[in-house]
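User: I'll paste a sequence; please echo it back and then give the predicted structure.

Assistant: Echoing your sequence first, then the prediction.
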Amino acid sequence: MAIDTSKQNIPPVLKKLAGGLIVSCQASRGEPLDSPEHILALSMSAINGGAIGLRLAGADNIGYVRQRTALPIVGLSKSPAVSHNKRFSTVYITSTFNEAKLLGEAGADIIAFDATARPRPDDLTVAQLIDRIHKELGKLCWADASTLADGLAAAESGADVISTTLSGYTEETSGETSGPDFKLLEELCKQVNVPVVLEGRVWHPEEVIRALDLGAYAVVVGSAITRPQLITEKFVRAIQQRKKTI
């Protein structure tokens, strides 16, 4: 399905992302690649491979990469106060307006945030957060949804982009772990009038093509490209499975 940006009042920075691949270049705290220098190397490698946008976590990383590229950057933060086990029940992606402000000041063009209905540390609703990002920061808003209801509510509240990022990563959607949530993508594409992006558990080029065929505005790929330890684990698991059958 071709992306027609003429039918919507789409900002120029979003038009640059139409129909392309956005690469998420991130490293968890304490991992070998957890430094601005390494995130820059991952980002430039992705750009050399044809990525048309980047999704980066942390103001330090965003500021460092911003100096080397003019491509659109989707910025987010991940709260270190939220343990991995609590992420299914607690907002941890850009959880406050102050975090969003730091990302915008660092050079992010678009601010990504948790768009679920879960309470936020600063008590802002999703609608209030979107309004402040637009008015006070002059930045675009990227709503990471987990369900159709999340996406519809975010679109109604003025989000510029809706993504499937949190499907499978909340208590309500914890069963969605086998692959990309194409069902959610398809429903969002049918029911909202802003760009919808597929993100989450995308490991194969065929999945990117399927997403675009279903109406995705763009696709984000992260771990399959930029998380060497996870890629290695897939091969190691295959070897271990083989040993069990010998």
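The chain has a mean pLDDT of 95. The CA atoms of residues 79 and 92 lie 5 Å apart.
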